[in-house]
Structure formats: C-alpha cells, structure tokens
Design goal:
Layout: H1 8-11, H2 22-40, H3 47-54, H4 58-64, H5 68-90, H6 100-117, H7 119-126, H8 134-162, H9 169-189, H10 196-211
Helix pairs in contact: 2-3, 2-5, 2-7, 3-4, 5-6, 5-8, 6-7, 6-8, 6-9, 6-10, 8-9
Length: about 210
C-alpha cells in the first residue's frame, strides 16, 4: 500500500524563535520592526509581518504590544533616546576661541558619523515626510524642535564671532537643519557618491564663501 503524500509544509514545520523573557522578546520585536521599515518603508509594516520577521506567532506580538500604533510608539521612543544620546556623545563642545564655521562643520561630521553607525535607525526620521505616518511625524518634529533649540545657541554665538550681517537667526537655524537632513539622506542612499568627506568639504567651502 502506497503511503499518503505529504506537503512541503508538513515535511518541514515552521520554526519559531525560542522562548525569551518578555523584555528580550520586546527588544527582538522592535528590532524586527526597525529592519522591516528600513527594507520596505512604513507602509509594509504589519503585526503579521513583524511576527514573521521575528519568527514568532502573531499572538506573541499582541501580548507585548496591543496594536501596531503602540509598537511604533515604543520603537520611536527607543530610537529617539538612542539617537539623542549618540549625538550628545559625538557632538563637539566648542571652545571660546573656536572657529564657528569649523564648529558647524564638525557638528555635521558628527551627525553623518552617527548615521554611518546606525543607518537603519536614522532612516526612521530621515525618510521623506510623505512616507511617514502621523505618529512618526510628531516625533520627528519634536526632535527637530529640540535640536533647533540647542543649535540656535551655537549659531547666535557664531554670528557674533564672525560679525556677519544675519538678522534672522531662527531662519538660519532651520536652513542649517534642512541642509543637514538632506545631506544625511544623500549619505544614506548613496554613501559612495555622497561621502561624509564630500558633504563636509562642501559645507566648509559654503561657510567660507558666506564669511568672505
């Protein structure tokens, strides 16, 4: 008598991730979500897709995060804290007699180095705004406001040191942030063509022309 045929799924049952403590599982799911967003964008993320990426069942995801919005909120808060800590460590502290232009270029270099070390994480906030869900835009705008407040102090000091005729420092700060973000996107998308050295050298020459 011929034994019944088995399907491929019956021959090779799906493997799931080993059991983990809740905190470790939580981090694993956040990492899986971050990886999915970096690969395919926010529109591709679902609870089922995250479960598949992590090698767990969908109920496991719902046990730790009640909804996709809750999961995204947790991911954004984690990456927000890590990014701000990373920038705080990398950002130079200007001396009183420092060259303001060099301080800004060094700050941009630190930002690009931060992107290089954690590219997937920085894609969360540097994706085009139309590709970001509302909850992401709220976090990005909050971070942007915090960075602008810190940068304004340095820019005001630099304008005074260089004695350049710039009356609207707030607008200058927003311009610098926009240029840095665009430089970050270019570096993420095409690091060979838009290298950190190329972007910082261009910025230095731009500041020199303004000073001149």
């Amino acid at each position: 008598m011929t034994p019944p045929k088995t399907t491929a799924s019956e021959q090779k049952p799906r493997r799931y991730a080993p059991r983990l403590p809740p905190q470790e599982r939580r981090e694993q799911l956040l990492d899986a979500t971050l990886s999915l967003i970096a690969e395919k964008g926010y529109e591709s993320v679902s609870m089922e897709g995250i479960a598949r990426k992590a090698g767990v069942t969908k109920p496991v995801v719902y046990d730790l995060f009640g909804s996709l919005a809750d999961l995204l909120e947790a991911l954004l808060e984690r990456e927000e804290e890590r990014a701000l800590n990373q920038l705080a460590e990398l950002m130079p502290t200007p001396a009183e007699d420092a060259d303001p232009a060099k301080v800004l270029v060094d700050g941009l270099d630190a930002f690009l180095r931060a992107i290089e070390t954690r590219p997937d994480a920085w894609r969360l906030s540097l994706m085009p705004i139309e590709a970001q869900p509302g909850i992401v835009r709220e976090h990005v705008e909050r971070d942007r406001t915090a960075v602008a407040k810190q940068l304004a102090t340095i820019v005001r000091w630099g304008v005074e040191q260089l004695e350049v005729p710039i009356s609207d420092v707030d607008l200058l700060v927003q311009t610098i942030i926009t240029l840095a973000e665009q430089g970050g996107r270019l570096h993420l998308d095409d690091p060979e063509n838009y290298s950190r050295e190329r972007i910082t050298a261009f910025t230095a020459s731009l500041l020199d022309s303004v000073r001149g």
